[in-house]
Amino acid sequence: MTSPAKTSPDRLAAYLRHLRLDTSPSPDREGLARLQAAHRQAIAFANLDLRLGNPIRIDSDAAFDKLVTRRRGGYCFEQNRLFSDMLSALGMPNRPLLARVRLGLPPDAPAQPRTHVLLLVDLAGEPWIADAGFGASYVPPLPLVDGFTVTTDDGASHRLRRIGAPGDLGGEWLLDRAGPVSDNRAAANADWQPQYAFDLLHVAPDDLEQCNHWTSTRAGTRFLTMHLVSIALPNGFASMTDSGLTIYRGQTKQVRVIDDLGDYQAVLADLFGLALSPEEVAALPLTQPERL
Questions:
Q1: What is the pLDDT of residues 23-55, one digit of tens each?
Q2: What is the reported pTM?
Q3: Is 183 a catalytic residue?
Q4: Annotation says 131 is catalytic
Q5: Domains of the chain by range and CATH?
Q6: The one catalytic residue among 131, 154, 183, 199
Q7: Contact between 119 and 94 (Cβ < 8 Å)
């Protein structure tokens, strides 16, 4: 993402078709918001390939093939690789930033590894944060302004705060969230809680490879012990953790347990748009007879 791959017109056109966009977004704040919302409503966040034992590649070709051509879904290193390439092709220069996820952790918890990537986008000299790959909620594009706050259609609010100096272990900037819970790590209340901390230091391609390798192979982490799927909806957000499905539409919350293999496969396809074969769905650790 530090050196974006040149995206062909055909690849950009295929991406926009997949996002169901008839015209190219403009290279400004409105275009950025339109593209990111369309991306998150068309391409599910998912770690199911990890649960199937498949390696995670984050080069431009692999990300496009998996997320657009094969409709597999993916997590932040894949999602924001694709998003970065397409932003560059649309005239929105950007570079990656690494973040430490803090959602659900106590205030005195030690610094976590950098397991999340987001993007710093240059809009006519104005820095914006963009993130098409955070699976716990929909985070809209935000201007890099201390105290800036916005509320999304699922009723959640997001706030940027400057909390430290460049290079501080705890981060230079913090993204907070408040409102409905769409992730099992978040507290069940409306109070502000930290989502992730980041700084603006430059990130090398090998930094991303290293962080992706840790995130996709570290035994005992949530990515290797849980089944995680989510997608933004036009008026809300849907997430599925293992067999528990939660859907927010406007101010309405629906929760149910998926207890049938056929139902699980139908939800993956119909709600999340994931093209997994019946054999792959049956091979997920979650869907073994004793667990579903």
A1: 999 999 999 999 999 999 999 999 999 999 999
A2: 0.94
A3: no
A4: yes
A5: 9-287 (3.30.2140.20)
A6: 131
A7: yes
